[in-house]
Amino acid sequence: MTLSRRLLLSASIVLFVFLGMTGLVLDRAFYRSTEEAVRERLQGQIFALLAAADFNEQQQRLNISEPLPDPRLSSPQSGLYAGIYDSSANLVWRSPSAVALALPRYTDDEIAKWYFQRLSDEAGTEYFSQSFTVAWESSQGRLNRYVFQVLENHVLFKQQVNRFRSELWGWLLAVSIILLIAQGIILRWSLKPLRDVALDLDSVKAGEAERLRENYPGEIQGLTAGINTFIDSERAQRDRYRNTLADLAHSLKTPLAVLKSGLKDQTDEGGSVMMHEQIDRMKQIVDYQLQRASAAGRTTLGASVPLKENVARIVVSLNKVYADKRIQCDIDMDDALQFPGEEGDLLELAGNLLENAFKWARSRIRISASLQQSAAGKQSLKLWVEDDGSGIPESMRKEVLQRGRRADESVSGHGIGLSVVMEIVSVYGGTVAITSSAGLQGACMQIEIPCS
Amino acid sequence: MRILLIEDEDTLRQQLAATIAAAGFVVETSADGEDGLYQGAEYPFDLAVVDIGLPKMSGIDVIKAWRKAGKDFPVLILTARGRWQEKVEGLEAGADDYMVKPFSEEELLARMRALLRRSTGWAQSQIQCGPVALDMTAQSVLVNGDKVDMTAYEYRILEFLMLHAGEVISKVKLTEHIYHQDFDRDSNVVEVLVGRLRKKIDPENQYKPIETLRGRGYRFAIARSAEQAI
How many domains, chain B? Predict the structure, then answer.
């Protein structure tokens, strides 16, 4: 699971739990306070009824003077009902709103105590009930006991709570969506440096950059600096390895040059010829083995280098060296084509192939390249070097590709160059083939190198 | 023809200098980059043979500095490493050809002659001006097909004048290019040699190949054969 998904998932869980709990607490608090408000309201109704009540001495009964304190008490089935019971629990008065209703009765009647409860009638309708018992003293000093009860239909309360709940959860949902979107944006912004590191690494891999940039946030600078150190040390090691090999070549070949140059002083003709041959062999072995060992191949942090630009460098150089031959060399490839490897390897590859072509060509050379897509969908770079020389007979082609073999002894160094080409191509997992050039009638060297 | 050889390996430098001198060139040598750069910049040379791996200053930097200073004599680089990266860098720096060590001396001389020829605009190693033919490889001179014997210095003067056929060559320049730098430039040895050359290649005073331009120098007056120019 990606980092951003992990963060987003955990943040969403925390957010939902937090907002859920908040919702529950708010819901509970609202429920309680609404219930409390109902209790106080009903208490107020009882006080108002008490104020409206008057004991009739003659009839020995309690009367409620009109108009009633709350108009809802006068309106039938308004949801607010009141009743007064005597000590025998007989209904002595009921509000006009309660006419024809069988209202549930109070359960406790201790004097001067408030009882707030939820009651249901036989039909199952729920009510909030507030009751209060009073002792009414008549003029004769007799105490008459009355229970005042006010009921309110529970539906009103329920409607109020439901309205609040739908509004509360709607808002909480909207807030959580906004917070989630904000969280996503913050995450994207915060993780951008990490995505940049990945992009940077890709461009280092592709050879478009030498190393990672340095302007990363402090938290990941340790990581990027570590990667840069790794890249540098890998390059330094490769360079050191190459330089050591080159120094070895230098220290071996200069004495060989001295030997070869000094041989003309020898009087023993046969010995001298033999020495020359052996020195040439040693030179070839040193050349081949060192070039073979220094082929870098594709590395994890390897570069890719522009193909046409480097091929053109070789062509310009060889045109200088083979100026007498006045060879026309056409480079036929896209400017954007990249060689998927080291510059040194490309120069070695193109240098050896083109030098052979310059040696053998009469007047024309063509070097072309293109990207090919295999049936399996893999890309490879194909390179053709054609000349208008005498070509390489089919029977000789295999031999030419072998180390130290020469197709024609009269042109020196042919074998080594092609063997080096083969070695580099095999390091990259590619292939070398020799065919005939259809256009120029000479040899055609074909190189194919897979792109990844 | 004056050649500058810069090579740090003493034995190889001495051997090469001897070989190049034996082939009829005047050789000045240098063992490091800084001295080589100085010599090439201060004295006239027709060609330089430069090793790439030199102490004090690399051969490539020496060539770059010469080219920057406008020195356009051909340069042949010697490389022991033989990697194309190095060859290309050398050629891009301004060298004209390269040789990978170890090499045969014959090949080195042949490449040097080819560069000298090319730098003076000749396409082949046999150069021909009218009846006079000069073979740079065999160092022989034919007039109307007959071989003319000449001393090493006479040959050098003729070769230099013919390679620069049509150009006015001052006596000082001629002296510089065929003698070592410590040669006494006031002596009239060049005039004597030119006089002897005239007698050898044109005894009848028929072609008048070498003109004397009073106060300016000499000129090989017979035009080069058209098909031989690059």
Answer: 2
